[in-house]
Amino acid sequence: MASSRQLEQEYLVIRLLCQPTRPQGVVQPHFYGQEGRFNCLVMELLGKSLEDRMKTQNGKFDVQTTVLVAEQLLNRIEYLHSKNIVHRDIKPENFMFGRNERISHLYIIDFGLSKRYWNGAQHTQCKTKLSLTGTARYASINAHNGVEQSRRDDLEAIGHMLFYFIRGSLPWSGLPAKTQEEKYRKICAKKQDTHPDELCKGFPDAFKEYLTAARSLEFKERP
């Protein structure tokens, strides 16, 4: 049932993003409904994900490629936020390149964990003691610490992803742990202990400045 609700959520968000007109980087949905006992979503066929593309580039992007990718990433997430929705699962697998004449266009996908941060009248409240939603490698420090996610958390996760692109790995990747809880705890501690200067060593300061700015945003603040 949970996966069924997530698929419906995916469709509803995509449909919202296509109104009033579908912008660059949003997939075209063709069908959502039941086929026998299965729920189905049919949408535009896309190409490789950012993760797939990295693997063809010896496991990392150069700075110029990362900057070009970052520009599209921020455009996509800004548009999603303009629809009062936060993604909550930022990772390279959730950004796909188009095909044919749109092969250089980056698409944002997978809205199964997305959530409204604005209900039409007010911003959602800042809850605490929540379980981690999203992918631990890229999640914000606040998300690890059980704080409700808002726009700032999507942006921080993008910052972690950009460092993954230029470095090829992150200091908190591959930490040994016996349980998922222990793994998440170690990842969070390593993120908190790793200064942006260390992450950015050998790369342009703009990456560090971006991550620092994202982490400094308030819960309800508009980026």
| β-sheet strand percentage | 5-15%
Q: What is the distance, rounded to the nearest whole angstrom, between the alpha carbons of the first and last residues?
A: 35 Å
| Secondary-structure class | alpha+beta
- Give the overall average pLDDT: 95
The number of helical elements comes to 8
Helix content: 40-55%
Largest sheet: 2 strands, antiparallel
Order of helices and strands: HEEHHEEEEHHHHH
Supply the CATH architecture: Orthogonal Bundle
How are the elements arranged and paired?
Blueprint: H1 2-17, E1 29-35, E2 38-43, H2 50-55, H3 63-82, E3 85-86, E4 95-97, E5 106-108, E6 115-116, H4 141-144, H5 151-167, H6 180-193, H7 196-199, H8 205-215
Antiparallel strand pairs: 1-2, 3-6, 4-5
Question: What's a quick, concise take on this entry?
Answer:
The chain has 223 residues and is an alpha+beta fold.
What does this structure look like?
The protein has helices at residues 2-17, 50-55, 63-82, 141-144, 151-167, 180-193, 196-199, 205-215, and strands at 29-35, 38-43, 85-86, 95-97, 106-108, 115-116. The protein is an alpha+beta fold. A hairpin with a 2-residue loop joins strand 1 and strand 2. Helix 3 packs antiparallel against helix 5. The mean pLDDT is 95.
Which short descriptors sum up this protein?
globular; two-stranded antiparallel ribbon; Transferase(Phosphotransferase), domain 1; about 40% helix; alpha+beta; about 220 residues
